[in-house]
Amino acid sequence: MSARSVKFILLFLAQAALWNYCNFTPYLMIALLPTMLLCLPVERSTITVMVIAFVTGIAVDFLVTGQLGLTSFALVPGAVFRRRMIRIVFGQELFARGENLSFRRQGWQKVFWAIVLQNALFLLLYIWVDDAGTRTFGYDALKFFLSLVVSSFVGLLVASLMLDESA
Amino acid sequence: MSREQHTTNLFVCAAIFILMEVAALALLHATSTLQMVWLDRASHRTMAFLWGSGETLRSHFQLERLNQDLQAENAALQELLRAYEGLDIEQEELRRMAARVSQTYRYTPATVVKMSRNQTHNYIIINKGSDDGIRPQSGIISDRGVVGVIQSVDRHYAYGLTLMNPSMSVGARIGGTAIVAPLSWDGRSTGRALLRNLPPHYDIAPGDTVRTSGFSSIFPPDVPIGVTGGSHLVDGSTREVEVLLFQDFATVRYVTVVENLARSEWMALEAAGEEEL
């Protein structure tokens, strides 16, 4: 098992622990999984990343809330649009050179924006479905923006762990 | 990667994506009550929209046929309405018939089909004729008083002259007195008539009720006609009394035809008496 896989599993467990034990406020949900998917090797096919996203989502739901399918539903679209998003943020050269994401080569700002986009898509879908029409728009919006800011900065830390080897 | 492979890959990705999302929602539907309700509601809303849109589209192309159906339904309803109106008329006629029971006079309820009001010689046509037992020289009355006299009869309709006719005269009595005089239209207004040929020494007070005398072979006694108004002398020899009629000829719709069953006997007696003279 590669070091990246071990890191992925450890971060997955960290996500489960975070959602299980660290409930700071109902307006905040710290998401690590979108960044973890983003930091998977670029050459991984979309289908492979989709399968990883689906299985990871099911697993984390099983371990945390019991609402099986909720995280998968929000995570899989991120996996689908991952390559397109990387192309938009980092350009075509990344694919042409066969490189992976790297703070050193692409700069932390680009990585940060990619993390923000990935988290935004995940949080948007997760909060929408989790809400199920029971809460106000203001509540959901506040939760979305607060969670996006915090998750994006935490995502930088996750990315530094995940991308350390490839960088 | 060739263009074909890229397209195929795109379709496969899309199919797997849809499959995974549906699977995720199905799992969520099965494991969470809140999301189950929400998904069911969304599903129903979507179905309603799709079916509703389809139905709207289908209706649009069937407008002509729907229009024809509506026209046919409208015609049927109008026919039904007329039938009910007919029932109302019959019930009204029966009500009037039940209210007037007499052995000497026969009362036949009828409805006014046509009536003139603005001519010198005004007439009335009713919806009962010889098949209903109507005969000429029968009286026409309403709950407001005397209306006219039947002149000629067809099988289903009868024609008569109304009181608004100079040639028509009705024997009338004033109040509870024994004063009897012929009453006829004044020829000008629709609500006034005149009692003529009264002796000049009679003092007639305004406001007395004028009723049929019962001395004619047409009208039964005590059918209200109107109330007395002013009076004046004519040529110093007779008195004329103005009568304000109860009957408003503009609103007559239901009438009753009164036939004197003894009229033929009365006529025969009169004829025999005249021969003896």
Describe what this molecule looks like in 3D.
The complex is a heterodimer of chains A (167) and B (277). Chain A is mainly alpha-helical. Chain A has helices spanning 3-21, 33-38, 46-63, 70-80, 82-90, 93-97, 103-106, 108-131, 137-162. Chain B has helices at 3-31, 33-61, 63-99, 263-276, and strands at residues 105-115, 123-126, 139-142, 145-153, 158-162, 170-174, 180-185, 192-198, 209-212, 224-234, 238-245, 254-260. Chains A and B meet through helix 3 and helix 4 of A and helix 1 and helix 2 of B.
Distinctive features:
A: mainly alpha; Arp2/3 complex 21 kDa subunit ARPC3; B: 277 residues; Thrombin, subunit H; 2 domains; 29% strand
Q: Biggest β-sheet of chain B, characterized?
A: 6 strands, antiparallel, barrel
CATH architecture of the largest domain in chain B: Beta Barrel
CATH class of chain A: Mainly Alpha
**Multimerization state:** heterodimer
* Count of separate DSSP helical elements of chain A: 9
Annotated CATH architecture of chain A: Orthogonal Bundle
Topology:
The complex is a heterodimer of chains A (167) and B (277).
Chain A: H1 3-21, H2 33-38, H3 46-63, H4 70-80, H5 82-90, H6 93-97, H7 103-106, H8 108-131, H9 137-162
Helix pairs in contact in A: 1-3, 3-4, 4-8, 5-8, 8-9
Chain B: H1 3-31, H2 33-61, H3 63-99, E1 105-115, E2 123-126, E3 139-142, E4 145-153, E5 158-162, E6 170-174, E7 180-185, E8 192-198, E9 209-212, E10 224-234, E11 238-245, E12 254-260, H4 263-276
Antiparallel strand pairs in B: 1-2, 1-12, 2-5, 3-4, 3-12, 4-5, 6-7, 6-9, 7-8, 8-11, 9-10, 10-11
Helix pairs in contact in B: 1-2
